[in-house]
Write a structure and sequence with these properties.
three-stranded antiparallel beta sheet, binds carboxymethyl coenzyme *A, about 50% helix, mainly alpha, single chain
Length: about 425
């Protein structure tokens, strides 16, 4: 960030205020209002943060108009096509692509932390079997601060590093355990000779009664899904992680808060909701009926997997995801998948409709991911846990960036108060 030497002038009554304008390395300039309240005794009002930069960050950049997503400067399509998830994790965490030796060391550190404390198995079995895996993940990840208390001191760089690696390494194990517990199968321990995605698939789909060989094509598709979800700058769950950590809370508690936020259908829960909507539509001839419902202001129905707060042209992750959906179904020999047919026709019809065009509503990353995950064998309830495990590295990187910033302050927004004015208490017998 640099000072542009430009200022904006704000006039309130007879008073004038100069507000500095800051220049980012990419994207629009930012009006610095940090001193505004102190100088002018006035707050800004921006519910939903539609015009507010909540922090300074050097991790991810999005240009919503152009459909650009960069991690540390590298475009997402290049990372999804040429890199792999653990390399992207390294990039997000440390700022640069690793050398071969750095990557080997990082992979071995992650691999060595894939197992969870044995006592955690008992913690899992305290949940009802029919609990949603996201409910289990919120609880178990929060409980990591009890199981891994030796990496909760945020002021110790070594503990921060260990906590980061633990979270990235154990999240697939935790997500797979939540799944296995839900379907009544035994937990499967991680295998450290497998890569990150293959290990996750094996922990989800193998059973002790028979051998399981990971299909490398599915493993590659899984890795790509992880990569496409790895980070997305200051979205709701990441902002939740940052706000929680601004108080100095430990990393496991902060990531649990992020998981809780991600679960909502307007955010990470949309992948489950999108596939459920596509199934509800069922056949292409019913699409007009659902498009009409989405447009009807008196109907709360929305086309899940459509629209994005930031992308107003296309979601670059959706482009890769759509290609992946074709590839995976093709490779699995699933021809003429009826849900994929509905999805493609729905996209076509919506993009021809002035309601969607005018509001710049396009398929987002969640529109096609569910089709791939279902083809791989995951139930819809596992879609959001898979998003959570992929996003963990983004949350961790943003958390680390924040706590390592010496100027970190507790996040404490103000409000536009519209409640009762000060009044005197009335004794109960006089009310
Ligand atoms: N279907 C129908 N209409 C929509 C949709 C949709 N999916 N999304 C937005 N609109 C309309 C909305 O009714 C409003 O219309 P009007 O201006 O006439 O009142 C206009 O578009 C703007 O909507 P908004 O809710 O003000 O936009 P937002 O930026 O606050 O919301 C969103 C963004 C993603 C929450 C929203 O588009 C949505 O609910 N989409 C469906 C859920 C979804 O797919 N979420 C996943 C987001 S990508 C993955 C992630 O980051 O988690």
């Amino acid at each position: 960030m640099s000072d542009t030497n430009k200022t904006a002038k704000l006039t309130i009554g007879d008073e004038n205020y100069d507000l500095p304008i800051l220049s980012p390395s990419e994207g629009p300039d930012v009006l610095d209002i940090r001193k505004l309240y102190g100088q002018a005794d006035i707050f800004t009002y921006d519910p939903g943060f539609t015009s507010t930069a909540s922090c300074e960050s050097a991790i991810t950049y999005i240009d919503g108009e152009e459909g650009i997503l960069l991690h540390r400067g590298y475009p997402i399509d290049q990372l999804a096509g040429k890199s792999h998830f653990l390399e992207v994790c390294y990039l997000l965490l440390y700022g640069e692509l690793p050398t071969a030796a750095q990557l080997e060391d990082f992979e071995s550190r992650v691999t060595n932390h894939t197992m969870v404390h044995e006592q955690m198995h008992r913690f899992f079995t305290g949940f009802r079997r029919d609990a949603h895996p996201m409910a289990v993940m919120v609880g178990v990840v929060g409980a990591m601060s009890a199981f891994y208390h030796d990496s909760t001191d945020i002021h110790d760089p070594w503990q921060r590093e260990v906590a980061s690696i633990r979270l990235i390494a154990k999240m697939p194990t935790i997500a797979a355990m939540a799944y296995k517990y839900n379907i009544g199968q035994p937990f499967v321990y991680p295998r450290n000779d497998l890569d990150y995605s293959s290990n996750f698939l094996r922990m989800c789909f193998s059973v002790p009664a028979e051998d399981y060989n990971v299909n490398p094509i599915l493993s590659r598709a899984m890795d790509r899904i992880f990569t496409l979800h790895a980070d997305h700058e200051q979205n709701a769950s990441t902002s939740t992680v940052r706000l929680a950590s601004s108080s100095g809370a430990n990393p496991f508690a902060c990531i649990a808060a992020g998981i809780a936020c991600l679960w909502g259908p307007a955010h990470g829960g949309a992948n489950q909701a999108a596939l459920e909507s596509l199934k509800e539509i069922g056949t292409p001839d019913r699409i007009p009926e659902f498009i009409a419902r989405a447009k009807d202001k008196d109907d709360p129905f929305r086309l899940m997997g459509f629209g994005h707060r930031v992308y107003k042209n296309f979601d670059p992750r959706a482009t890769v995801m759509k290609e992946s959906a074709d590839e995976v179904l093709d490779l699995l020999g699933i021809e003429n998948n009826p849900i994929l047919a509905v999805a493609k026709e729905l996209e076509k019809q919506a993009l021809d409709d002035p309601y969607f065009v005018d509001r710049k509503l396009f398929p987002n990353v969640d529109f096609y991911s569910g089709i791939i995950l279902e083809a791989m064998g995951f139930p819809t309830s596992m879609f959001t846990p898979i998003f959570a495990l992929s996003r963990t590295v983004g949350w961790v990187s943003q958390w680390k960036e924040m706590v390592e910033d010496p100027t970190m302050k507790i996040g404490r927004p103000r409000q536009l108060y519209t409640g009762a004015q000060a009044r005197d208490y009335v004794d109960v017998e006089k009310r």
